[in-house]
Design goal:
Blueprint: E1 9-11, E2 14-16, E3 23-27, E4 34-39, H1 43-60, H2 65-81, H3 83-94, H4 98-118, E5 125-126, E6 133-141, E7 145-148, H5 156-168, E8 172-175, H6 181-194, E9 201-203, H7 208-216, E10 223-227, H8 230-242, E11 246-250, E12 255-259, H9 265-277, E13 287-293, H10 297-309, H11 330-344, E14 348-351, E15 366-369, E16 386-392, H12 395-402, E17 407-408, E18 410-414, H13 418-427, E19 432-435, E20 450-451, H14 460-465, E21 468-476
Parallel strand pairs: 7-8, 7-10, 8-9, 10-11, 12-13, 12-18, 13-16, 15-16, 18-19
Antiparallel strand pairs: 1-2, 3-4, 5-6, 6-21, 14-15, 17-20
Helix pairs in contact: 2-4, 2-6, 3-4, 3-6, 4-5, 5-6, 9-10
The protein binds nicotinamide-adenine-dinucleotide.
Nicotinamide-adenine-dinucleotide (NAD) is lined by residues 148, 150-152, 177-178, 208-209, 212, 227-229, 232, 235-236, 250-252, 284, 330, 381, 383.
Length: 477
């Protein structure tokens, strides 16, 4: 196991440690024990960060595309170089298998490389006008950004907050999750070591609501970006509205998966079972409600349960482990309550259903079938290793059920019928849809949701545009 990195605040280029500050314990999800202490920013630290962000914005917004691209590329190279150590830190604090932690870090490098190139493509346009007039539409960085990210992807969530902002020419203050601080801190350290000025990219920690209220109360911050629950997203949107700050909100989902009898059922099972239990189901785009045509329901649900039972659950540092513990005590506690409620209401338990052991936050890969719509788990994001599989009479009912909830992040459908795929692409309310595949995320593809899954986009060119404002310049001569 490589060494866990030092936990600090990174404010105005200074490394601020625990001395003289209150601290928060970081727990190992495989044991439940505290293994590191994280300093909490004081109000004075947050004010210093705000002053630095204002200074940093003035300097960074006028850097040339060449300069910005070169620095971001160097940051990406350092992330690649340090991927093993950062991946191990993520496993320590978050629990996922170490190869997944390393994969997450390498994805950050790819995304940053994409953003580095994108920083050159900040094209404006000139409108058609008669001689003597000129109208130019230009895109400018929105201003200092405050980013708040969740614990399920300690590195990617942070990269999504800072990459687009830096490419656009903004300064950024990011607050990674206090439960998983090192992944994001290490990503920022790579950027600072690559030459991003200390005033331009900063990291703070504290009590989340206190930090976000403090930063959002300042007129310095012009945009917020958050990954987490819908409840907190709505709260932050209200705070942002007081000062009309722009917002990108990447919130939860309740991914429907429509499975038709004309699909390759074995392949659907192989791909979707892996996708379901990735990161112990703690993924905003996790496939959750499997809506299966009645003719293939028995085969599908039995095949799912069999594969779920075969998943090797263990410490993320064990090379055999396919699924690690959940990230915090809230995980198994919340899931147990939802499973009990669903079973009371008549759901059938086909696999798992229990916590594992009495150390750490492990939970069995679980399959529930024929789950009534009034069970809480059919309405609230379970955010854990549980699949819900229900038989459905046909396409119309499946689309209606897919759209029943107020969420609209990722949706999936498995069918060999292309005309049906087009109907579903039109009819399903989601920010992202995958047909005959499990991946809805790519560095150059916009990532985000509709309805209660939030607004604004990350990744792709849209992830940079989200950090820009448009100015129109009218000129006569
Ligand atoms: P949460 O929304 O309370 O916390 C998510 C993250 O937001 C945490 O890292 C937390 O530090 C931060 N946060 C919380 N309150 C904040 C505030 N006032 N200001 C700024 N940051 C704040 O969610 P949770 O309790 O960790 O998990 C509950 C549910 O949230 C999950 O079951 C899931 O539905 C959802 N969730 C979604 C994502 C996602 O990727 N969209 C990630 C994590 C959690």
């Amino acid at each position: 196991m490589s060494e866990y990195p030092p936990l600090e605040l990174l404010v105005a280029g200074e490394r601020l440690g625990c001395e003289g500050r209150e601290t928060i314990d970081v727990l190992d999800p495989a044991t439940g024990e505290a293994f590191a202490a994280l300093p909490k920013a004081t109000p004075a630290d947050l004010d210093s960060a705000l002053e630095a962000a204002a200074r940093g914005f003035k300097a960074w917004r006028v850097t040339s595309a060449d300069q910005r691209e070169a620095i971001l590329r160097k940051g990406a190279a350092l992330i690649r170089e340090r991927a093993q150590a950062i991946g191990a830190a993520i496993t320590r604090e978050q629990g996922k298998p170490v190869k997944d932690g390393v994969g997450e870090v390498l994805y950050c490098a790819m995304l940053l490389e994409f953003y580095a190139a994108e920083s050159r493509r900040n094209y404006g346009k000139t409108l058609v006008r008669p001689e003597g007039q000129r109208v130019e539409v230009r895109h400018e960085p929105v201003g200092p950004v405050a980013g708040f990210s969740a614990w399920n992807f300690p590195a990617i969530n942070v990269m999504r907050k800072i990459g687009g902002a830096l490419a656009a020419g903004c300064s950024v203050i990011v607050k990674p999750s206090e439960e998983t601080p090192a992944g994001g801190l290490e990503i920022v350290r790579c950027l600072l070591d690559a030459g991003v000025p200390g005033d331009v990219c900063q990291v703070v920690f504290g009590v989340p609501d206190e930090v976000s209220r403090h930063l959002l109360a300042s007129p310095v911050i012009r945009k917020i970006t958050f990954t987490g629950s819908t409840a907190v997203g709505k709260h932050l949107a209200r705070l942002a509205a007081d000062d009309l700050k722009r917002a990108t909100l990447e919130l939860g989902g309740h991914g429907p998966v429509l499975v038709f009898k004309d699909a390759d059922i074995e392949r659907t099972l192989d791909v979707m079972v892996t996708a379901k239990y990735r990161n112990a189901g703690q993924v905003c785009v996790s496939p959750t409600r499997f809506l299966v045509e009645a003719d293939v329901f028995d085969r599908f649900s039995e095949g799912f349960a069999q594969r779920a039972r075969a998943i090797r659950v263990g410490n993320g540092f064990d090379a055999q482990t396919q699924m690690g513990p959940m990230a915090s005590q809230r995980g198994p506690d919340g899931l147990q309550a939802k499973i009990a409620d669903a079973r009371e209401k008549g759901a059938k338990l086909l696999a798992g259903g229990n916590r594992i052991g009495n150390q750490g936050f492990f939970h069995e890969p679980t399959v529930l079938a024929e789950v009534p719509l009034d069970a809480a788990i059919m309405n609230e994001e379970p955010f854990g290793p549980v699949a819900l599989i229900n038989p459905m009479p046909g396409e119309a009912a499946m689309v209606e059920e897919a759209n029943r909830l107020p969420y609209g992040l990722a949706a999936y459908a498995w069918t060999g019928d292309q005309a049906r795929r087009m109907r579903l692409a039109n009819g399903i309310e989601a920010g992202m849809i995958a047909f005959n595949a499990a991946s809805v995320s790519a560095i150059d593809a916009p990532f985000g949701g509709v309805k209660w899954s939030g607004y604004g986009l990350e990744d792709g060119a849209e992830g940079v545009q989200a950090c820009m404002v448009t100015k129109t310049v009218h000129e006569s001569f």
